[in-house]
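Good morning C.,

I know you're traveling, so I'll keep this short. The sequence:
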Amino acid sequence: MLNVNPFAVVGASLPDGFLECFLVVMAVAVVAGTLFDIIHKGSARYFFNNMTKTRAKGHEVGGGKLISIAVQTAVVDVLASGEFCNLKRRVAHLLGMYGFVLYLVATAVMVFRYPAGAAPAPEIWPTLWWIGALMVLVGGYWFWFFIRVDVAAEGHSPLRIARADLFILSLLVSVTLGVIWAWMGGRNGVLFWLYLLATAVLFFGVPWSKFAHMFFKPAAAFDKRVSRANGTAENLPLQTRDDPEQQKRHSMELLQNAPTDMGLGIKREAPRHY
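The tokens, ready to paste straight into the viewer:
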């Protein structure tokens, strides 16, 4: 089953072009949902206003420096998920991210390039589809049961569901059903329609899930690096204890006059509760 294109198998019993149309509709849902999310939350307006404000107060950053910042953002913040300080969470995120990319690309190639009735798909594409799907499941289930903050740090049950879990749950359900369906040779009609339903929830749920963050978080990371480069640092004081303005922010007089280096302190033990 690992070398068989399951979409060609099921496509033989579906109207011509059905799967292709489904993927196009899902792509349109992602674009429309992301635009709605950005407009509804005001993300684009915030970044534009913040960029205008900081540009007026900071020094100008040259084109070469901007290119360097863009490359750093792409490599560190996007490709390597540098925002995650926790190694386990970073690994889980990278597994899910790269697995999802492999899974989507292989799906699109098998559906559009090798539909039912066409030449069989080269073995590399079903193999990549399986590798991507399994990477998503390993990273996703690892995160869901062992890494989530409310589970690992706050002691909540891993089965507790909140609205913020829509993306990860719909992703895991969709890929899990897809893997089971493909393992059965792509011939189980009930599993196939459940697979499509879960996939539709994943892509149509963009405005109510964290799906859209993969598009505007790189923009936020780039804006943050630019604000550091032009000297504005988003108009915040330096985050060092020897900065007088930073010391004044503490409400406790003891902390205002505390030494810069206070030792290991809470770093002796990993935080488990907030």
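Safe travels,
E.
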